[in-house]
Amino acid sequence: MRGSIPNYEIITPKSLAEALSLLVNEPQKWKPFAGGTDLMVMLEAGKLSHRNYLNLLPLQELRQIDVQEKHVTLGALTTYTDVQRNPVLVDEFPMLCQAASETGGLAIQNRGTIGGNIMNASPAADSPPALLAYDAELELSASRGVRWISYNGFHTGYKQMGIRDDELLTRIRLPRSAAPLVHYYRKVGTRKAQAISKVCFAGVLRVEGNAIEEVRIGLGSVAPVPLRCARTEDALRGQTISDDLIEEAIKEFSAEVSPIDDIRSTRNYRLRVAQNLLIDFLTPKSQ
Amino acid sequence: MDLGNTLKVRFKVNEEPREVEVFPMARLLDVLREQLRLTGTKEGCGEGECGACTVLFNGEIVNSCLVPMAQVEGAEITTIEGVAKGNDLHAVQQAFIEHGGAQCGICTPGMVLAAVDLLSRNPNPTETDIRTGLAGNLCRCTGYMKIFESVVRACQK
Questions:
Q1: B157: which of A101, A175, A196, A273 lies 20 to 30 Å off by Cα?
Q2: CB-based contact A197:A270 (threshold 8 Å)
């Protein structure tokens, strides 16, 4: 049953500074509210336990996409629709655009934000695997200052994150690659649109000569957190792609993921699909 | 029970200025239907899966069941009641009538708004564009082909 509407408070800070000062002055009272596409679902289910929210959506300064020489920086309130409309993201970060296009339908994409997708911290979220594979960094802002951290390692356990109570996720920075990468993104769900992932795989690969120079893999729905597959990457880096190498990589990979049975799929199915996606990712495609 | 404060929200619905006093977490869907008596917008799932409650929010489709009133201040909302101009139906509405795009009618307002939004952004959509544009709207009668054909016909007008 829906949560009781009068029990909830949402206020709209006039600026980022005001939002940050509320977070520090009234510790743990306020939680951020962005596009609401996850929180309102929790409300409808009667499972929205926190009561007081800061409506951040009007903070336009957090909805910019800045293209710099070395990075593209997205405000945390960048929507899935904004992502798909940015030509530099389409060109250089196609997996993020694909993730955005496969998250919900257009009405969700117009409202849902990349920052919200990260902070909702669902292991089944679709943009985190792409952000992990692109080696994203996060800007965490507080009244006392700003720090940048690697997104890799940010999710420390189911719905647990390395962010302090007085901090807000404000920007996401993606390093631009000088060399061309192979981008491989596959979301496997029950249907092509409007489905939540059973497995989501995002990988980038750069092979020079015969050797793998660069490889990063992010996975969704196979662990309590969006997972960066560091051990699998270590097994692949510097090596030449062969059947033996793929077999070795699958071993590491299978030890690294920890899929479970739940309403959307089974452990066995998820493991098999994830392994098959790894094989497909590593199998050279004729261009 | 700890009753929170209500909020005055000023916004436009179908180009008319409105002011309502509501709880900040009240859903736009409920305010449209119950306070403003605009019952063309339907509630289906209440969790952003079905698109029955689709409205245009500053020109973009949203699920009104997922929008709290605290986020509606200053917004321009278009509901199904605002799609026709007087007696002049929108091409999408006319096509739905002529080509059997509506069965029970619950998904129809959302389907029409999704199609209106699609055609406003892309007057010559491909079949894939139409399918993508309607992907967030479910029809419980499963009359998808007639809906799809209606949108195709609307593009030809």
A1: A101
A2: no
**Residue A116 within a domain:** yes
pLDDT digits (tens, 9 = 90+) for A232-258: 999 999 999 999 999 999 999 999 999
Asked whether residue A187 falls in the same domain as residue A165, the answer is no
Residue ranges of domains in chain B: 7-82, 91-155
Same domain, A47 and A139: no
Question: If you classify domain B91-155 with CATH, what class do you get?
Answer: mainly alpha
Per-residue pLDDT of chain B (157 residues; tens, 9 = 90+): 455 689 999 999 999 999 999 999 999 999 999 999 999 999 999 999 999 999 999 999 999 999 999 999 999 999 999 999 999 999 999 999 999 999 999 999 999 999 999 999 999 999 999 999 999 999 999 999 999 999 999 998 7
Q: What is the CATH number of the domain that holds A214?
A: 3.30.390.50
Contact predicate B71/B3, CB 8 Å: no
Number of domains in chain A: 3
State how far the Cα of B65 lies from the Cα of A157, in Å rounded to an integer.
30
Instruction: Indicate whether A121 and A227 sit together in one domain.
Output: no
Q: Do A6 and B1 touch (CB under 8 A)?
A: yes
Distance of alpha carbon A153 from alpha carbon A230, whole angstroms: 11
Q: Do A57 and B71 touch (CB under 8 A)?
A: yes
The distance of B41 to chain A (nearest Cα, Å) reads 14
Output the CA angle A170-A72-A280, nearest 5 degrees: 105
What is chain A's mean pLDDT, rounded? 95
Q: Judge: B24–A8 Cβ closer than 8 Å, yes or no.
A: yes
Q: Find the domain containing A278 and state its range.
A: 182-282
Which residue's structure tokens are 């990712």? Answer: A281
CATH number of B7-82: 3.10.20.30
Q: What are the tens digits of pLDDT across the range A57-83? A: 999 999 999 999 999 999 999 999 999
Chain B positions touching chain A (beta carbons under 8 Å): 1-5, 23-27, 46-49, 51, 54, 57, 60-63, 65-68, 70-71, 73, 114, 117, 132-133, 135-138
pTM of the model: 0.96
